[in-house]
Amino acid sequence: MVSITKRSASPVGLIGKPSPFHASVTLFAANTSSVNSNDAPTTDPSIMLRRSKRIKLEKNYDVDDVAIPKLESDGHDGPSPPRKRKARSNVVASSSSVKLEEVSPRRPKPIQQSLAVPHPAPLRWREAYDTIKRMRANIVAPVDTMGCDQAQLKEVDPKSQRFSTLVSLMLSSQTRDEVTDAAVGRLREGLGGSITVDAVLAADDTTISEAIAKVGFWRRKTQYIKQTAKRLRDDFDSDVPRTVDELCSLPGVGPKMAFLALQVAWKINVGIGVDVHVHRITNRLGWHKPPTKTPEETRLNLQSWLPTELHPEINHLLVGFGQTICLPVGPRCDECELSSGLCPSARKITKTAKIRKIAATSTTKGGPKVEITLEEQTEEKLFEPLADAPSPLSDIE
């Protein structure tokens, strides 16, 4: 924009107007009334030039569309015409549409299936694995009788079997197997004897909530179950999907549930279901270098070196081991065969005996005074990390 310095008096044939852009600038335009008071066509070339430029400005930039005062040119290069507000609104509208597209629902990110660089197989892992398997053969853990694979046994229809397995997995998050199994039984009873997609959709939220009220986050899981049933009906013919990515697109379903659902419901083995037990125990065994921080890191490490045929069984094996021997707090290292050198996080157990003396006095009427001393021996267990072991990872949940 070119400004013209303010003058004390206007030339003949020009009229000054204050600039709408700056108070110290005056714009001059041809005063056609003084030049041509009789409304006769003017022959002054300068005035004709100014008028033609004014007309050209209006034609090219459509100043009428702009909500500012219309300016007349004085023949000099005046201020650049402002951008049309109509165009600006279009830009804003365009920006808004782009923004809406960015926040619109997108397909979930595919679940990572492998590491770019495989994790090396730990030393003596097979020996430790077989030792756990041998110990588990003599132990009946809660997961053996109340795990997610038990929910389908009371269903007849194959679709209901798969759906009840998925529901059991959804309820198991942050919940003990005993509580989950009881909740599945109450839900089946509340839905009329079978856990089906149609029965869940027909039931009100109160019916589902009352049945699962003892599991963790039951309010949220009530909504997840209803939303999942609707998705299955609309998108998957009322059946459980057959891929990890499709399962993880359902509300409340994560990778662990997806891999276990495929293994139990469809007998499809595409990965390892890693929960807190698998995450904790494999870190205690030193199978991850460095130690993993999340179950997903643990899963990718294990899948990179553990033989594929062991993927379906390792979750069930380690969950039961973690429920009975390798507890989150106070692991029973004195009962574990891995303490002999296969577990770097094992704690050395020292037993000490304490003898406590108890004195008692008895008197009888007219008889002698009798004093009795009893000795009671108690055993105390002291746990110490092995001298050559790294820091135990007992705090990993």
Automatic annotation (TrEMBL):
Under catalytic activity, the entry for this protein gives:
2'-deoxyribonucleotide-(2'-deoxyribose 5'-phosphate)-2'-deoxyribonucleotide-DNA = a 3'-end 2'-deoxyribonucleotide-(2,3-dehydro-2,3-deoxyribose 5'-phosphate)-DNA + a 5'-end 5'-phospho-2'-deoxyribonucleoside-DNA + H(+)
Cite the residue spans of the region called Disordered. 68-113, 377-397
Kindly give the InterPro entries that the UniProt entry links to this protein: DNA_glycosylase (IPR011257), Endonuclease-III-like_CS2 (IPR004036), HhH-GPD_domain (IPR003265), HhH_base_excis_C (IPR023170), HhH_motif (IPR000445), NTH1 (IPR030841)
Sorted UniProt keywords = DNA damage, DNA repair, Glycosidase, Hydrolase, Lyase, Mitochondrion, Nucleus
Which Gene3D superfamilies does the record match to this protein?
Helix-hairpin-Helix base-excision DNA repair enzymes (C-terminal), Hypothetical protein, domain 2
**Which residue numbers delimit the HhH-GPD domain?**
171-324
Q: Chief localization class?
A: nucleus
The record's subcellular location field reads: Nucleus; Mitochondrion
| EC id | 3.2.2.-, 4.2.99.18
Q: What does this protein do?
A: Bifunctional DNA N-glycosylase with associated apurinic/apyrimidinic (AP) lyase function that catalyzes the first step in base excision repair (BER), the primary repair pathway for the repair of oxidative DNA damage. The DNA N-glycosylase activity releases the damaged DNA base from DNA by cleaving the N-glycosidic bond, leaving an AP site. The AP lyase activity cleaves the phosphodiester bond 3' to the AP site by a beta-elimination. Primarily recognizes and repairs oxidative base damage of pyrimidines.
Record-given protein name: Endonuclease III homolog
State which gene encodes it: NTH1
